[in-house]
């Protein structure tokens, strides 16, 4: 099973949710060879609940995942900022993710983010698996937390964007922290649009549909991480495309139509 642990369903947090864009993303994820992904959408993105409401309406429940018509399985999740700087990934049943997002409503603005310990206390109340996204990306400070707090995490994200920018540093620091904490290191592309899919993903020996199955395989080490030889190019291209599409929107254009329309020829 090829799984991407860190993905997004929108181009950017402040842009409106588009069913057409999200459908395109999921179709491209399948075309890139993925069997499943964790949709770790930003907790303070516009229309968070609308995104998941739409996803639920076009999928069927399989274990803890939502399976789309193209057979891609989506594990609901969320990416949450912490006051100390850094991002925490949570993956779990749809209802748990939606309720957590509602409870985090008072803490969605910069300057109001929950501290790491309080956020982990909140997550402990729900059946979610929690990890640290791109732990060594500036200005994050999660690795500086006391070890007793860090051990509350269940995994670390070897992030595609960071690998593309500096593979040696990203691998060295992330794997060293994982070894120190006795914690699995898995991988996610961090894509907001489709060019980045496949730059890195985690290959499991077992086909998993529940969090319990995922955790069992992760803790047993029955997986490997695949990094594309084109990862750096994919990430650079994705960043350029994202900036261009956001500029189209800012100028009043329809970036979704520009991106998804078929070639006139």
Write up what this structure looks like.
The structure is a single chain. With 265 residues, this protein is an alpha/beta fold. It has one domain: Alpha-Beta Barrel (TIM Barrel), CATH 3.20.20.140. 38% of the residues lie in helices and 22% in strands. It is built from ten helices and eleven strands. It has helices at 19-31, 48-57, 94-103, 116-123, 147-150, 160-165, 167-181, 211-220, 231-250, 255-260, and strands at residues 2-7, 36-42, 59-62, 65-68, 73-81, 87-91, 129-133, 155-159, 185-188, 200-204, 223-227.
What topology emerges from the helices and strands here?
Elements: E1 2-7, H1 19-31, E2 36-42, H2 48-57, E3 59-62, E4 65-68, E5 73-81, E6 87-91, H3 94-103, H4 116-123, E7 129-133, H5 147-150, E8 155-159, H6 160-165, H7 167-181, E9 185-188, E10 200-204, H8 211-220, E11 223-227, H9 231-250, H10 255-260
Parallel strand pairs: 1-2, 2-5, 7-8, 8-9
Antiparallel strand pairs: 1-10, 3-4, 4-5, 5-6, 6-7, 10-11
